[in-house]
Structure formats: C-alpha cells, structure tokens
Write a structure and sequence with these properties.
The chain is α/β, with parallel strands linked by helices. The chain folds into 2 domains: about 70 residues, no CATH class; about 325 residues, TIM Barrel (Alpha-Beta Barrel), CATH 3.20.20. It is built from 20 helices and 8 strands. An 8-stranded parallel barrel has the order 1-2-3-4-5-6-7-8, surrounded by 8 helices. The chain is globular. The two termini are about 15 Å apart. The structure holds flavin-adenine dinucleotide.
C-alpha cells in the first residue's frame, strides 16, 4: 500500500503540473493567513456582480484595507494596489485571477465548449462525469429548466461520445459494459421544495423529473449519478432513488449511482440499508456507490450547534478517514452487487482502496477512482499510469454559477485538516500515507 501511495504521489514534471504546484503553494500561503483568505473569498463572491475591473479593484482594495493586522502577503497586495500603475492593473489582475481559478475547476461554459476538454481527458486514458452547475433552485421554473438542461446534456454528450476512440480499459469491468456518458445530478436543483421538515413535498416535486431523466439515460445507455448534499436532504434523496430503482420499468437500466458520505457517524448503517435495497431490487445493472468523505462538514457542525444537537458528522478528521476505510472494505467486498467509486484526493485513502481490492482478488477494472477537475489532476495522471480506471468530475457552467462551487473547493483545499493542503505545505508523504 505504501509503495502504491508513493507511486501515486510522485511529483509530475509537466509544465501544467509545475504551474499547478505553484498555484497550490500560493493557496497554502493564503490559507495560512485567515484574514487574507477571508478577503479573497469575499472577492470571489462579489466578482460576478462587478461591472468592470475598476469596481473589482475597489473591492479588493477595501477588503485588504479592512485587514487589521496584515501579514506580508496582504501588505504586499495593498501596496501594489496603492501604486498608480499597479493599481490600475490590479483590477484586471484580480479579474484574470478569478477567471483562471474558475477555469481550473470548470471544464467549459456549455456542453458544446466542454466537449473538447472532455474528449482530451478520454484520450489521456481517463473518463468523466459531468456536473451542470447552476444557482440555487428557488422557483419551479428553475427546477424544470435544470431538468431540461440535464436532458439536453445527456443527448449532446451521447452524440459526442459516439465519436470517441475505443478504450476497453475504461468501458467495461467483469460485470459488463460501463457507459461512456455519465451525468451527475443534484436533486435540490430539480426542485425548490426540499425541506428537512417536509420531505414529501420535495420528493413529490422531484420524482417526475428524475424518472424522466432515468428514462432518457436508459434509452441512451448513459449513467446517471445522484450527488449527495447536506443532511437536510439526505433521507429524501436516498428514499427517492431507491424507490425509483425498485420500479419494474428500471429493472434493466439505466446504470445509476448514489453517494455515501463517510464523515457521517451513521454512514455504515446507511450502507447496510442501501445494500439490502440493492439486493432486493434484483436489477440487472448494479448500483454504483461513490464513496466520499463529505463536502458539508462546516455546514453540518454549525447547523447542529445552532440547534443544540450532537453533530451528525465525526469531529476528528481521523475518524472520518478510518470510517472511509471501513466503508471501502465493505463496498469492495460487496462487488458485484454494487460497483464502487472511491472519490478522494487523499493518497492514503486511494492507495488503501487499490491495495484492498487487489488483496481480495478484484481486477483493476472492478472499481474506479474519482477526482475533481482542477484538484485531482496530478492524481488522475498517476491513477491512469497505475493502470486503474479514473473518472474526472467535470463541472460545466458559466463563471457566475461556478462561484459557489469555486468557493467550496477553495475552502476545502485550504482547510488545515485537508490532505491536499498538508501536501501543498510540504508535509512528509510517508507520514500522510500512515494509518489514520
Ligand atoms: C469525484 C468527487 C465527487 C464528489 N461528490 C461529492 C458529493 O456528491 N457529495 C459530497 O458531500 N461530497 C462530494 N465530494 C467531496 C468530498 O466529500 C470531499 O469533501 C473531498 O473530496 C475532500 O476529501 P478527500 O478525501 O479528498 O480529502 P481529505 O483531506 O482526506 O479529507 C477532507 C475531508 O475530511 C472531512 N473532515 C475535515 N475536517 C474534519 C474533522 N475535523 N472531523 C471529521 N471529518 C473532517 C471532510 O469531509 C473533508 O471534506 C466529491 C469528491 C470527489 C473527488
């Protein structure tokens, strides 16, 4: 396991990898300065609403001036904005920075723009799942529009994918074919009515739209993956998907996936529930389960504290890591009832899964590793080099709709507990590969 982890973690030498490493070091420096970090997040938040570079510069200057005890980076930034020539340029620089950051994480503004980068990923030996970014769905019309966009994306992606070269390594496992087209969808974008207190309203509103998407995916031979969000919607999403899967019409397809979050204390019980339902459904296409740690840790802890509840998430990062490994074993042991996707940028978590799969006799195609575009690019190359299937989660959307996504990714990437932040700040790889 250690050897595989080291191999996956070897620094890449390409120009793009060097640029990414420099970018990551800058983010690590920013992360070390909480006030500067907050100022930049505010800038990213406000950027879409700015009418020009001058407005953006003024915001940046105000945020930096607002820092009470500026560190060296923040002081340098303030001085640069104050100097006349640099001041004029700084709005443009900030705009370019925000755009560059967004470009790193978002594969294109539309499916048509995204088609080329997606095909490049395919040519490089990996495959993708596409996520259509959108602002929070607050009206019925927005829910319908998102469903329409998903439907169009399935059709458009299928058209493009038909022209891709054959890649047997990523197109089948020992159960059978794996769809080329894979779309990740969010139930909270399908309906504005998701409320923890009244789950049946959200469900009633989303069920028809999700069923139509499943029909479309089945017709096209595509895979639909339902993302998991915060606890407010978890039970509703789980029941909705498992109930739909049990409908006789879907016994032979489409290929469908769910997400399991290891940071939840009850995730192991949740997995047993899912496995029992998957076994009872007797479908000919297995359910895919994407194992993640969970992206809403701050939200869950704050929400629980506000209500005086015990947090539903582990509060020690090592507990999430250990739970992730227990779930990894249980999932891989459950093949071929379910297909497993290990979604993580943590080399220990990924190497652990690959080593365990090998130990129990699974082939390299019998599970996959998933990474996020922009955060997992080095790992993507290493996973492909190691002969494993890698799927890249590719957000598609404009800069405005990408901002919430971008802020979430940056927050994760720079949080002290994060594997990527530890790595960017120079922590010893062998220590990071150790038992959690
Ligand atoms: C392809 C892909 C798809 C994804 N889809 C989803 C999705 O549908 N839903 C979703 O929720 N997330 C999703 N994620 C995000 C994922 O949940 C993680 O937030 C992210 O990948 C970071 O985890 P890691 O294993 O890469 O890194 P690591 O650095 O090993 O882990 C970071 C994670 O540890 C957990 N953590 C941090 N601090 C603590 C603490 N004090 N106590 C306990 N736990 C802590 C958090 O979950 C945090 O995100 C996805 C990630 C990928 C790569």
């Amino acid at each position: 396991m250690l050897e595989l982890g080291r191999r996956l973690g070897r620094r890449r030498a390409s120009a793009a990898a060097v640029k990414r490493a420099a970018n990551d070091r800058t983010m690590a420096l920013v992360a070390a300065d909480p006030e500067l970090r907050a100022a930049l997040f505010r800038l990213v938040d406000v950027a879409p609403a700015c009418r020009g570079n001058e407005e953006l510069r003024a915001h940046l200057a105000a945020y930096l001036e607002g820092i009470e005890d500026p560190g060296p980076l923040a002081s340098f930034g303030s001085r640069a904005i104050d100097s006349r020539a640099l001041g004029r340029a700084s709005g443009g620089v900030a705009a370019t920075m925000v755009r560059q950051m967004a470009k790193r994480f978002i594969v294109g503004e539309t499916i048509v723009d995204a088609a080329r980068p997606i095909e490049r990923i395919w040519r490089d030996g990996a495959t993708v799942t596409v996520d259509l970014l959108g602002e929070a769905t607050v009206t019925e019309e927005e829910g319908r529009a998102y469903a329409r966009r998903c439907d169009e994306a399935l059709v458009e992606l299928s058209r493009h994918a038909a022209g891709w070269a054959d890649r047997p390594a990523v197109e089948a496992d020992s159960i059978g074919p794996i769809p080329r087209v894979n779309l990740s969808v969010k139930v909270t974008a399908l309906t504005p009515l998701v409320r923890a207190a009244a789950p049946e309203r959200g469900r009633a509103d989303a069920v028809g739209r999700l069923r139509e998407l499943m029909r479309r995916a089945a017709g096209l031979g595509a895979h639909l993956h339902v993302d998991m969000e915060s606890m407010d919607s978890r039970e509703m999403i789980l029941d909705l998907v498992l109930d739909l899967l049990a409908e006789p019409e879907f016994a032979a397809g489409p290929s469908l996936g769910l997400v399991l979050q290891a940071y939840l204390r009850d995730s192991e019980e949740m997995l047993e529930r899912i496995l029992a339902r998957a076994a009872a459904a007797e479908r000919s296409v297995p359910l895919t389960i994407r194992l993640v740690k969970g992206a809403y840790w701050d939200h869950e802890t704050i929400e629980a504290a506000q209500h005086g509840w015990a947090p539903p998430v582990w509060t020690d990062k090592a507990d999430s890591d250990r739970c992730f490994e227990r779930l990894t074993r249980r999932l891989l042991d459950s093949y071929p009832l379910v297909r497993t996707a290990i979604a993580s940028h943590n080399l220990r978590s990924v190497a652990y899964a690959a080593a365990y799969a090998e130990q129990i006799g699974l082939g390299p195609a019998d599970f996959e590793i998933q990474v996020l575009r922009g955060l997992g690019d080095d790992l993507q190359e290493a996973v492909v080099e190691a002969g494993l299937r890698c799927r890249v989660y590719c957000p598609v959307g404009d800069m405005v709709s990408g901002m919430a996504y971008l802020v979430r990714r940056l927050l994760e990437n720079t949080s002290n507990a994060s594997f990527l932040a530890s790595r960017a700040s120079g922590s010893d790889l062998d220590a990071l590969l150790g038992r959690p």
